[in-house]
Every structure is written in structure tokens, then in C-alpha cells.
Amino acid sequence: MAQLWGGRFTKETDRLVYNFNASVSFDQKFYRQDIRGSKAHVAMLTRQGILTEEEGRLITEGLDGILRDVENGTLEITDEYEDIHSFVEAVLTDRIGDAGKKLHTGRSRNDQVALDMKLYVRDEIDELDILLKTLLTELLAVMKKGAVVYMPGFTHLQKAQPVTLGHHVGAYFEMFRRDRGRLADIRKRMNTCPLGAGALAGTTYPLDRAYTAELLDFDEPTRNSMDSVSDRDYVIELLSALSTIMMHLSRFCEEIIIWNSNEYRFVEIDDTYSTGSSIMPQKKNPDIAELVRGKTGRVYGALMQMLTTMKGIPLAYNKDMQEDKEMTFDAIDTTKGCIALFTGMISSMHFRNDVMEQSAKNGFTNATDAADYLVNHGVPFRDAHSIVGRLVLMCIDKNISLDELPLEEYRTVSPVFEEDIYEAISMKTCVERRNTTGAPGPKAMAEEIEACEKYLQI
Fold first, then answer.
1. Which of 108, 168, 228, 277 is catalytic?
2. Residue 143 in contact with residue 170, Cβ under 8 Å?
């Protein structure tokens, strides 16, 4: 059992206790970050004269060799070591001798693991941002193609007013745009370097923490050594942001599942993102959308677990914090996988434009525009609302849409109606007249699409 402590102990740790305490099975994900942090630490120690130039060179070359051998598979990280830090230091010492034992000068595993976690989270945020930007690019493509594709807009899952497919998808563009903003905020707020904080109270060595921070692309060192090793706010913020991303994916998946049903037929999911039934040959199931919807709860669970873990921990570092890793790794991997799969599903999906437009007509989504027609002809809105409600009842009784109701039937309810009512309530007119900022009209949508294009170019 390779571990970085033991001088004070007279008995070997029980194997069960060792296994329970060990983290190498999951924190080996940190090997790149751990080696990067160690190299920066060595560069700072050398610059400060705490290590000699020769010691710094030997350690740095040794660390580079470990990274290279892990990457090419000739060096395996095994459970012989307690954690990734023990692995790196033990292998380094085996390879370069006593100089390797000086690697840990002026730092603790507490600030080391805090650094590794920050470096890892920062790297993952960058990857998540790339995935979200790719998804937004696909959504923008749908917005452009669907800018004049009419469909029903819904409230309470009831057909409400006509919109366009581009406008509907544009709502999700805004959600995922905010998600990118949240990740950027987290990255900026967390970008302080904990290395050099020691176990909790700093160190007597003349460290240059600002230089270490600079080498690792942090904005500055952390300001309080106790907070440095016990802060996991950024993990909680990340898990919250991931939960929000998954919530947005899940909402969209729910709509796709509904739209894919025989009752709606708004979309057809590509065969490559569907599965069949083992017993019912006619089935084409939206399994990817359902799995993304289902995995949302998994990410929520990680957030709640982390909040619960941290809620009763006194300052400074406590072993409970080791529980931050597995759940966070899983939540990140789950979210990244879901974004990538969802992007592929959207990019290959076929939208049934004709079905969507017919659904908008059959759902009386132009009823409000019929009422507005009356208002524009001098009828008080409350009276207009009642008149159109009676017309809708007539249409339901005849199983027709407002577009199909004869003019004489309109005039039996109100003599104000003229032939131009049909143009006033056409899907095209209903949508094109709505051009206030954020509306589905062509002028408003053109402005929004242009703004989205500029946003994605940044």
C-alpha cells in the first residue's frame, strides 16, 4: 500500500479501511491536472531557490516521463496507490531518486487536490462550452429553415396561437445561450489558485503563489488558506448549471417525444437515433430522447448529494470532501454525452412542416386574430371575445376550422364580418403581423437570427 504518510503510525492500516479511504480508482482522472500542477509548483520552488536548478530539471523531466508513459499505456495507475498524488510521487521517486521526495515541499494533499479539482472542472467547462456552441449552431440552422414554417404555439399543452418552428426552437436557443453564460460565470468566479495554501494555514517556505497562479492560467491566488482547501462552491455551482442544462434538454426531449407520436406526427426521428420493439414490428421508439429525459434525474441527484455532503462540514478540510469527485465526474460525463447525442438527433431529425401548419389551423390558433379583426372594426374586445367563442363552437360542431367556415355563417353571429376575414386569420397573416421584439414575425425573426449569428461568431 503506497501512501504519503505513516511515520506516526505503528500498525499497518487495515485493508478494508485502506480501500474505503482510497480514491485512486476515481481520482486517477486527475493525472494530467496533477502533473501539470506539480510542474508549476516545481517551477516556482526552483525560481524561489527552494529547489536547485538541477533538482527542478530532474523532477520536471521525471513528471514529463510519467505523463508520457501513462498516455501511451506503458505505465498503469493501479490500486496499489492510495490516490493519484501518491502514484505520481512514488513513481517519480522510484525513477529519479531522492529528488522526487522534494516534490511535495511547501504543499499539502489538501491544496493539491483542491488544485486538481479546479483544473479538472475548468477543463470540463471548456469542453461543455464547445458542445453547447455546437448544439446552438444546429438550433440556429433549424431556426433559419423554420422561420416561415407555421405551427401551433401551446399553453397548458393546448393549442394557443400560431407561431413558427423557427420561433419555437429559438426559445431553446435562448435557454442554451444562458447555460453557456452560467458556465462562463462559474469559470470566471472559480479561477483562483489554491496551491500554496498548504493543509489549511499556509507554509513557512517563501512561496510565490502569484507566480504559480500565473503558470496555471489562474487570475490570482486564493485569498484565504482555510477557504482554499475547503471550498467546493464551484463544484456545487457547476452541478447546478449541469442540472439546468439537463432540464432544458429534458424539456425539449419531452416535446420531441410528443411531436414524434402518431397523434402529432410533427417530426420523424432519424433511424440512427431510434430503436424498435422486440415484439411489435411497427414500433419506432424515441429512446434517445427518453434516455436524455431520464438521465436528468441522475444529474439532479449529484447536485443534491453534493449539497448534502457540504452542509455540515466545519473548517477546514474534512475527508467527506472526497465524495465530491465520483458524482461530479458522472454528472459531467452524463451531461456531455446527452448534449452530443441530442445535437446529433436534432441535426438528423425531419420536421413535418405540412402537418404542423394543418395542426395550427385545426386548433383554432387564429381565434385571437379573429377577435382582433372585430376590435379593429369597432367592436369592444369583450364582445369580440364572446362572438369568436360562439364561432369556435359552430366550427367544432361542424368539424371544420375557422378558415373553412362560410362567410354567411360568420355574419349570422356578427354582421361586421366581411370577405377580408379570411386573409386576416390566415396563418401567414397571423404570424407576419407579430413583429415586436421577440415575436415570430419575419422582421422580428430576421433580427433575432442575425443577432444569434453574431453571438456564435464570438
1. 277
2. yes
Given a cut of 60, whether residue 7 has pLDDT beyond it is no
Per residue in 41-95, pLDDT tens? 999 999 999 999 999 999 999 999 999 999 999 999 998 899 999 999 999 999 9
pLDDT per position as a tens digit, 441-456: 999 999 999 999 999 9
| CATH number listed for the domain at residues 110-357 | 1.20.200.10
Name the pTM for this structure: 0.92
Residues 382-386: what's their mean pLDDT?
96
Domains 110-357 and 367-425 share a fold: no
The residue ranges of every structural domain in the chain are: 15-105, 110-357, 367-425
The answer as to CATH 1.10.40.30 being correct for domain 367-425 is yes
Active site (annotated) includes residue 108: no
Mean pLDDT of 271-299: 88
Q: Which of 156, 250, 261, 426 is labelled catalytic?
A: 156
86 catalytic? Reply is no
pLDDT band at residue 234 using 50, 70 and 90 as cut-offs? very high
CATH no., domain 15-105: 1.10.275.10
